[in-house]
Each structure stands twice: as structure tokens, then as C-alpha cells.
């Protein structure tokens, strides 16, 4: 069983709302600028990819930790927000990233999910793996305020 299998599909209205994430109305936002690609969205779960590009690397030729952290922070956005409607905003309260190994010469794929959702707080987890190697590169815990 994969992590994604633990979560049901998005309802049609939520799938439509999130169909163009992260582009939406402002194609120049930070996540779009970094080139994140949505691979799968489910209730309380998302998987995003960061294509390997020279601009994402640090001088040593491995993917920059800031790019990985941005991928993590963005991957949990649809997991948190799929059920948020109307004028509600949500923001990161905290994020703790553990870098376990480097991403080098391959895309990074992040799975982000909700561990526990309260009335106004969501506790999230994330894992980043090399797309080709499957190697676990980073894990993270995040807290979001809705």
C-alpha cells in the first residue's frame, strides 16, 4: 500500500478548484516560477515534482536545500486546502525539515499529507524522494493555520 492509497480521491468540485494549481490566476507566483508539477491530488494528500534543472542546484551540483524546502511547503498546500472554500486563507506556522541525502541529477518528488486536522490547525508530514532512484532524501513535519 502506498501513502496515496490511504486517502480518498478528491470530490469533483475540489478537483476542479485545484486543477490548475499552482498556476491559478497568477502564473508568476513563486511555486510556478520554480516549476513544480502536480502529479496527484487526493483528500488530505498531494504529490508534486520538481524537475531537475541547473538553476535548482547548489555549486556542488546537488539540488539546493531551499528548493527542496519550497517543494515540501508547496506540496502540503493542496492537502490542507482542498476542503477550504470561500475567503479562508491558510499559512505555514512551522516547518521542520530533515535532509537525509542529496538529490543529484534527477527530479525530486514530494508526497505531503495531513496527519491530523483540527478546526483551524493542520499537522502535516512530507517525504521527498529521488524520482528515478526512489532514495529518501528528506522528511518534514509542518503545521498550517487555516
First and last CA, distance: 30 Å
Class, according to the CATH hierarchy? Answer: Alpha Beta
- Helix coverage percent: 10-25%
Radius of gyration: 15 Å
| Share in β-strands | 25-35%
CATH fourth-tier homologous superfamily: Hotdog Thioesterase
Question: Secondary-structure element sequence?
Answer: HHEEHEEEE
Which residues sit in consecutive blocks of at least 5 with pLDDT less than 50?
none
Provide the CATH architecture.
Answer: Roll
| Overall mean confidence score, pLDDT | 93
The overall strand count is 6
CATH topology group? Thiol Ester Dehydrase, Chain A
Main β sheet profile = 6 strands, antiparallel
Q: Report the structural category.
A: alpha+beta
What spatial form do the alpha-carbon principal axes imply?
Answer: globular
Number of domains: 1
Strand line-up in the sheet with most strands: 1-2-4-5-6-3
Determine the number of helices (DSSP H or I, runs of at least 4 residues).
3
